[in-house]
Design goal:
The chain has 122 residues and is mostly helical. It has one domain (11-118). It has helices at residues 6-89, 102-118. Helix 1 (6-89) packs antiparallel against helix 2. The longest helix has 84 residues, at 6-89. This is BZIP domain-containing protein. Residues 1-49 are annotated as: Disordered. InterPro entries: bZIP, bZIP_sf, C/EBP.
């Protein structure tokens, strides 16, 4: 085996030092890019979660309003059925439906639905 030349050895150390410094800088750049990507990913995730929660709350409110509307329409349907049966059952009796004010009977239910729309949900 040939003896090592001192100049070659010292030259290799300099190359290794430069290479290690470049590796450190490259590593630092990669870490910084990765850290930025992680931050962006976390922000997007939080935004998606917040949007989902807002949508859930919106749908809950809409569902409550629709349930109230169902109750009101069910009540109206029952009333109209009773009215129809009363009319059909009293063919001998003269029932004057012009005197019945449906709007006044249903106004109370309509007001409660409108109030629910105006009240903010928590």
């Amino acid at each position: 085996m040939a003896p090592k030349n001192k100049e070659n050895t010292s030259g290799n150390k300099k190359k290794r030092q430069i290479s290690e410094e470049e590796d450190d800088e490259d590593y630092r750049r990669r870490r910084d890019r990765n850290n930025q990507a992680v931050k962006r990913s976390r922000v997007k995730s939080k935004l998606r979660t917040q949007q989902t929660l807002e949508r859930v709350n919106q749908l809950k409110t809409e569902n409550e309003l629709l349930e109230e509307k169902i109750k009101m329409l069910t009540k109206e349907l029952g009333f109209l059925k009773d009215l129809f049966l009363a009319h059909a059952g009293s063919s001998q009796h003269s029932v004057n439906f012009q005197d019945v004010d449906l709007n006044a009977l249903l106004a109370e239910d309509t007001k409660s639905v409108e109030q629910m729309k105006d009240t903010p949900k928590s």
